[in-house]
Amino acid sequence: MATKSVSVRIPEESLRELERIATLKGQKVSDLVRDLILERLTNGSGGGNQLVIEYLEGFGTVLAGIHNEAARSRYYAELMTSYAMDLQSLMTDGKVTEKDAKESLLGRFSNASMQMANESWLRALNYQKPPEGEPG
């Protein structure tokens, strides 16, 4: 198939958005623009799904950032809890908490934290637990 070049002028904000999307997809801007034009020509106005896909791809980046921050926060929380347990044990028993006892307690804290997080998500999603005996 023979190809021809086309040159268009677009606002700077649009170019920045195209560059952002191209970077997310690992493409050159020219390849992305060509794909968008051909998609629109072949699928008509059905390109609305592409907007949803692009939004979700950007949302994935945000979620990854949130996940990293949550992991960092959890690490520091566990570290501080471990130090607090050792300080308490030093003050009461004259020695640091034994490793197994500390891991057991931190495991219980972790399980309780996960349960609270799950319940928080369910509340945020307005999930209602089905009555006993009905499928969930």
Automatic annotation (TrEMBL):
Cited Pfam families: RHH_1 (PF01402)
Alphabetical list of SUPFAM superfamilies matching this protein: Ribbon-helix-helix
Domain named Ribbon-helix-helix protein CopG: residues: 4-42
InterPro entries to which the protein is assigned, alphabetical: CopG, Ribbon_hlx_hlx
BP terms from Gene Ontology: regulation of DNA-templated transcription
Protein name: CopG family transcriptional regulator
Species this chain originates from: Candidatus Dojkabacteria bacterium
